[in-house]
Amino acid sequence: MDSRSSKNLSYTVNRVYPDQLVPKINTIKKMSTLANTLSILEMPQETKKSCGDKKVEITVERIKMAKSIKEKQSNDFEKVALKRKAEGEEKPAGKKEAKIIELDSPLLTMPLPHIPLKNIMDVEVKLVYVDEEDVSYEFVESFRSTGIRPTCRAAEIVDPLRVPDFSFLPQIDKWLQVALKDASSCYRQKKYAVAAGQFRTALELCSKGAALGKPFEASAEDIASVASFIETKLVMCYLRMRKPDLALNHAHRSIVLNPAYFRNHLRQATVFRCLERYSEAARSAMIADYMFWLCGGSEQYISKLIKLYWQAMIEEAITRAESFSVMYTPFATKIRADKIEKVKEVFTKTHPAYVEFIYTDLQGLHTLPQTADWSSFPPQQYLLTLGFKNKEDGKFLGKVSSRKIPIFIEHKTPFGLQTREETVRHMETMGKRILPVLDFIRSTQMNGSFRASSGVMEKLQYATLLSQLQRVKEQSQVINQAMAELATIPYLQDLSQQEAELLQSLMADAMDTLEGRRNDKERVWNIIQKVGQTEDFLYQLEDSFLKTKKLRTARRQKTKMKRLQTTQQN
């Protein structure tokens, strides 16, 4: 393989540069590195102040929006089920049971048929590099006349015979309109480098308040929606230029601005594929398919294409993995300890070269593209088993099931300052040994969370190590990716009040880090890491105490036996 919601008000910008315009956050940053602040987008002070006051409000609003979308899909699914039952069209029980495979049945491993590169490229042509002239994208804006918040359908094919009236929606600034028109024209002429430069100019105009016709009356969400459109165009330009490294941050930011739009996730998957980061590409494709369904997508052929892409990325990730091998076991009932041992036995027979450390993931259920059906809750689920050639490569996973906040890197002095050599070693361990495994685990695991092995906290902590080593560009990419994942979490799971507050804190700290802001308070993820270090330290003390106690008991028994023997001899 080659190297690598919303409010349903359609908005068309003179049919010249339509793309999805779904605002999701109130601050837009264009930033390549933390050191070079020249590229940071800044809004006028009046707008910036207004946006800052609404940061928490918009984050909470997004969580509420995601919840309402999921509730609507759930209600629609229940209505369909009731209708089928009333009409006597419910599927026979035998067919339903055939889909569920118990662990008591013979254990199966899912085959991975090879998917040709041509098929993957076809998916990208049809879904990633879409024809701008054929798509109408939507604003997420409160429908003030009705107060109704529609669902997050992010794009639809425009009926050429039907010309909707969008005159009541906010109008794009005329100078920005001209810049985007020129950029889109260059893109269609395949002058991608010129187009990228013009889209960057458009992004700068947007940052200076030239997003909408009335900048001082425009909401932060509306400004963000325009920036979201430009970010996605930049992603496509750089992909066409075969410069995925330049497209990466733009792909992440497009998701931060609009996590509900499936094409943003699919474009991110394409960037990851070009960078040969196949596990991350697989997860992005999985979320793209889920978002397509969640937001009302009904075209089955689109879902099939996304699933094909997802499956191909998993296949490639497994093929490229050298340190571990994989087995998926379908199941439907609660997993018992004896069943886990049975799974490990089958894995040992199937993958005898990867038995130095065997890990069965009990932290979350897995879904495969071959059987994924989001409308069927829950879809067919699988147990993931990983086996490693080298015990050192996988033993960190042993902490996941036993620790609430595990720290995967050993600290000789957990509360002391690290030397540069120690920081480099920890950074390499995280980047080359830990994160790739966690990324693979998450490539078939839908639930987003803040728990151990979720990958989000680990990425933010990895960014801290990069910052300490002054690897600013990499740090910026990692934080942008973490922010994209955080922005997506409310759509993947229901959040408690505590989790919602943590999400807001993480997003705020991540944004401050990207902007280079420093304050007296430590970053949330570093505080969590210190809690984990404290927990690890206590576990080490406990283990040391128990070992010492065991040795003392053994010595006492030995001394007692010697005295008894001496007494008997006398």
Automatic annotation (TrEMBL):
Pfam families the UniProt entry points to: NYD-SP12_N
InterPro entries the UniProt entry points to: SPATA16, TPR-like_helical_dom_sf
Name recorded for this polypeptide: Spermatogenesis-associated protein 16
SUPFAM superfamilies assigned: TPR-like
GO cellular component: acrosomal vesicle; Golgi apparatus
Gene Ontology terms: biological process: cell differentiation; spermatogenesis
Family: Belongs to the SPATA16 family.
Keywords: Cytoplasmic vesicle, Developmental protein, Differentiation, Golgi apparatus, Spermatogenesis
Cellular localization per UniProt: Cytoplasmic vesicle, Secretory vesicle, Acrosome; Golgi apparatus
Main location: cytoplasm
Gene3D superfamilies: Tetratricopeptide repeat domain (1.25.40.10)
